[in-house]
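Hi R.,

As promised on Friday, here is the backbone we talked about, encoded as structure tokens. Could you run it through your design pipeline when you get a chance and send me back a sequence?
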């Protein structure tokens, strides 16, 4: 087992440790240090900062999707506050005229407390987004939540056409889920999958996962169903481009989407090739899980994180 693989596994584990997250949140020096590393990947700490980042990103030619970071909310009050904050996001997008959608984790608005609570909160958001002419994308979480999330997506799709869903190519079940979800309106965002999961349920990173991703992507692209090809994998991006060109497929329903701070030049290339492109912009104070996942999926980012820290430290006043 390589050191990098071990580091990635340790980070994925760390990402899910809520006591470490709470510890970081309660200790300002630790929080500030982590925030410094996280800033590369997030739109800001506040909605205002994120809206500014979104406007600048729009000017570079990319749409954005804004997510108020958080997951696994344990009480109804926090779930209601998160729902309210997403309503603020919708209002801010409309007010500023951003080319933007919203993205959210259903566990942020109540899934772990009670799926019915998450559904009710999601319904409020879907309706408000629909009235504002915006799209709402649902993220996909750990494998123990897949069925619950797909069920809520199904119920929302019975009423609204603006609710998209994320599918993870690493899950064995996804090839079947995809054919079901393709019967529903709403964009399908295809990702490789970021959560720790048992090998009985998922392909591990590597050739088999890439084959699964390509097969699912082909099905999506050729179907004409609205989709987001959400990967930074340059081989897969080139393959998608060839596929679209060879079959002279219409590109209206296809979008390429990447995370802020990750291989932006590849998104620029897709934009220059004439595709609609989008950047995922999360914001807020709950960046612990998000940062750990970004470091885990590309361990060289650890060096970058340390550099960000040192550079920030150089700017701080020295204590005599
Ligand atoms: C818009 C969007 C939404 C997402 N939503 C979800 C979700 O709801 N649920 C979920 O489980 N996952 C989600 N993900 C994360 C996803 O599952 C992957 O973990 C992540 O995209 C990395 O996989 P990849 O497809 O880029 O391929 P990889 O094989 O991981 O990476 C391909 C190449 O991209 C570059 N790269 C990838 N990641 C990084 C990085 N962090 N830093 C620097 N370079 C990097 C490297 O050059 C790497 O070789 C989302 C991703 C995107 C883009």
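Update: got your reply. Pasting your designed sequence below so it's all in one thread:
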């Amino acid at each position: 087992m390589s050191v990098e693989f071990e580091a990635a596994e340790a980070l994925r584990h760390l990402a899910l440790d809520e006591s470490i997250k709470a510890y970081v949140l309660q200790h300002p020096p630790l929080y500030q240090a982590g925030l410094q590393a996280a800033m590369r990947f997030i739109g800001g700490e506040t909605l205002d900062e994120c809206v500014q980042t979104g406007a600048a990103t729009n000017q570079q030619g990319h749409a954005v999707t804004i997510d108020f970071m958080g997951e696994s909310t344990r009480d109804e009050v926090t779930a209601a506050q998160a729902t309210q904050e997403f309503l603020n996001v919708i209002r801010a997008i409309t007010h500023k005229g951003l080319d933007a959608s919203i993205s959210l984790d259903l566990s942020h608005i109540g899934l772990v407390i009670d799926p019915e609570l998450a559904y009710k909160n999601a319904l409020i958001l879907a309706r408000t987004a629909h009235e504002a002419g915006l799209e709402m994308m649902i993220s996909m979480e750990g494998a123990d939540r897949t069925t619950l999330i797909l069920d809520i997506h199904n119920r929302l799709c019975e009423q609204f056409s603006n609710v998209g869903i994320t599918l993870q190519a690493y899950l064995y079940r996804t090839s079947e889920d995809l054919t079901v979800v393709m019967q529903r309106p709403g964009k399908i965002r295809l990702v490789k999958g970021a959560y720790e999961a048992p090998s009985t349920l998922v392909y591990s990173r590597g050739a088999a996962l890439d084959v699964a991703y390509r097969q699912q992507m082909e099905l999506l692209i050729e179907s004409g169903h609205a989709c987001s090809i959400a990967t930074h994998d340059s081989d897969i991006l080139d393959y998608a481009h060839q596929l679209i060109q060879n079959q002279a497929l219409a590109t209206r329903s296809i979008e390429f989407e990447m995370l802020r701070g990750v291989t932006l030049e590849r998104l620029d290339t897709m934009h220059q090739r004439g595709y609609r492109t989008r950047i995922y912009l999360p914001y807020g104070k709950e960046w612990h899980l998000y940062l750990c996942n970004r470091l885990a999926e590309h361990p060289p980012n650890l060096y970058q994180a340390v550099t960000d820290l040192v550079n920030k430290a150089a700017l701080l006043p020295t204590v005599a």
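One thing I noticed while checking it: Residues 139-140, 166, 168, 191-195, 230-233, 257-259, 262-263, 280, 294, 297-298, 301 surround flavin-adenine dinucleotide (CB under 6 Å).

Thanks again,
M.
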